[in-house]
Amino acid sequence: MLDEFPGSTGDVAVTPERRPLPIASTAFGLAIVVLVFEGVAIYLASSGSAGAATTLGQILVVVTAIPLALGLIAAIRGPHREWGIAAMIVSVIANPLILLGVLSFFGSL
Fold first, then answer.
1. 40-51 confidence digits (pLDDT tens)
2. Alpha-carbon distance 27 to 34, whole Å?
3. Cβ proximity of 64 and 94 under 8 Å
């Protein structure tokens, strides 16, 4: 009677398949959060709170390495490589040092 149900194998124990960790989507979500905090830092700097913006910018320089590393891992071995690549691109754009260099370059033209 129990042999009629799908997934039943009689005496053999069935172990469920493990799903891989969603590294790529986690990296992309974290990169978007970092990008939002970058916007907050820019807003703080433009509204006159230079100290808070500087502190937040220094923290973001270090934190942008996390989605970059996770995106690299996902791009190398993950099933969703495109999300890992997108996470790397967003985290590089959200890095305050790179953003400052790009904006300075275009400001000097």
1. 999 999 999 999
2. 10
3. yes
Measure Cα distances from 22 to 25, 27, 83, 91 in Å.
6, 9, 10, 17
| Nearest CA among 85, 86, 83 for reference residue 21 | 83
Residues 6+ apart with CB under 8 A from 29: none
- Please tell me the predicted confidence (pLDDT) of residue 2: 55
Which residue type occupies 58? Q
Per the CB < 8 A criterion, the answer to whether 94 and 34 are in contact is yes
Q: Can you give the residue ranges of every domain in the chain?
A: 24-107
3-class SS letters over the chain: CHHHCCCCCCCCCCCCCCCCCCHHHHHHHHHHHHHHHHHHHHHHHHCCCHHHHHHHHHHHHHHCHHHHHHHHHHHHHCCCHHHHHHHHHHHHHHCHHHHHHHHHHHHCC
pTM reported for the whole predicted model: 0.76
